[in-house]
Amino acid sequence: MSDIVFILINGITVACIYGLVAVAVSITWSALGLLNLSYGFIFSFAGYGAWLAQRYWWENPTFVLFMGIIAGIIGGIIVCLLIFIPVHDKPNFTLRGMIGTLAVSLIGGQILLQYFGPRAKLLPEFFGYSKIKILDKLDKRISDVDLVILCTPMSEYESIIPYLNKFLDKKSIITDVGSTKQNVLRLKNKKLNKSLDWILSHPISGSEVSGPKFGNKNLFKNKWCIIINDKNKKKVKKVVRFWKKLGSNVIFMDPIEHDKIFAITSHLPHLIAYNLIKTAQDFQKKQKKNIIKFSAGGLRDFSRTAASNEIMWRDVFFNNKGNMINTINMFIKNLKVFKKNIKNSEDKNLRRVLIRSKKARKQIIQLKQDISKPDFGREEI
After folding, report:
1. pTM (whole model) above 0.85
2. Nearest 5°: CA angle at 187, between 184 and 193?
3. Pick from 326, 329, 350, 348: which is nearest to 339 by CA?
4. Distance CA 301, CA 291 (A)
5. Cα 337 → chain centroid
6. Residue 55 CA neighbour count, 13 Å, CB half
7. Measured between alpha carbons, how far is 121 from 141 in angstroms, rounded to an integer?
């Protein structure tokens, strides 16, 4: 069943339940000559009561349902105490009751949302299938997980593997998002239980910011995802399907080839960005002037790259040490040529290199790895 059909069926079911409840409650209030507009608050109060019961007391569905009903009754009593009892003998009782209950619904509902909203992300499973669980530690609860994706810095992998060996079922699939692959493959072969399958992945996406609050639904759209082939073809296909469903273009690589290519296309550019910003900071310190505030587009864009997570990039540099040294040597060699061209005013040689370099940008755009808008399509500040 697709997610859309699942959402539609559950939405219609919940709407029908709420509709029946609302009709029943309306009839009850009407029989008493009351016009109550606080249903939203009462339902919210009941829902959050059920959530608290499931979260802090007991996950049993019957208990959760019972506590939800109790919370709803308490919500109704609160409305009676605040609105109906104080105004039941006053003129225009119906109008006063309607205005009062509407105010309770709006204010009370907002207070509940403000207090519980960020924490009660998920309803108890009793109210519908919960697709996300946040675990505070790795234990037997991961035994029924179908897919484990390691998204920590690579230096944490070794400390995680013992938990996977102990608790994970052999039917599960492990993958990762690490930026180097030879080291991960060695770690897998040395430390991972042979009954478990780890399909190495590397989605070529991300930004200088990290953490859930910077989530982007298009993060993987039309971006490459590198997968290192494995003997378990069935599980490889599942990992491929997973990344494709997120919008990635999947390609297979040998781990040695992977680490060589990305040493040039990703790892060296980040190292250059860090070094350029350091150079600017050193220059600023030496000149005793604030030059950062005059950052032109070049320094500004390099600063974005240099703002990336330092632990992650330390791990990348150390784990791709050999390729990094080779690419650094190549970069220094070319930098010396630039230095020589500038020092000797070698116009023809310098322009030849600059013109050839522009072609790389056109190729990146043609391959749809970036857009052709000026300044990367950035909005004006």
Report:
1. no
2. 120
3. 350
4. 15
5. 43
6. 15
7. 19
Query: 140-254 is classed in which CATH architecture?
Result: 3-Layer(aba) Sandwich (3.40)
Identical fold, 140-254 and 258-377 = no
Q: Does domain 258-377 have CATH number 1.10.3660.10?
A: yes
DSSP bridge partners of 251: 226
Token pair in block for residue 261: 């290519």
Write the secondary structure of 92-115 as one string of H (helix), E (strand) and C (coil).
CHHHHHHHHHHHHHHHHHHHHHHH
pLDDT in tens, the chain (381 residues): 455 665 566 556 555 555 555 555 555 555 555 555 566 677 777 777 787 787 778 878 788 888 888 887 887 777 777 766 676 666 665 666 666 666 665 666 566 666 665 444 444 444 444 455 667 788 888 888 899 999 889 999 999 999 999 999 999 999 999 999 999 999 999 999 999 999 999 999 876 666 666 667 778 888 899 999 899 999 999 999 999 998 899 999 999 999 999 999 999 999 999 999 898 888 888 887 777 777 666 787 788 888 888 999 999 999 999 999 999 999 999 999 999 999 999 999 999 988 888 888 888 777 666 666 555 444 554
Domain ranges of the chain: 3-127, 140-254, 258-377
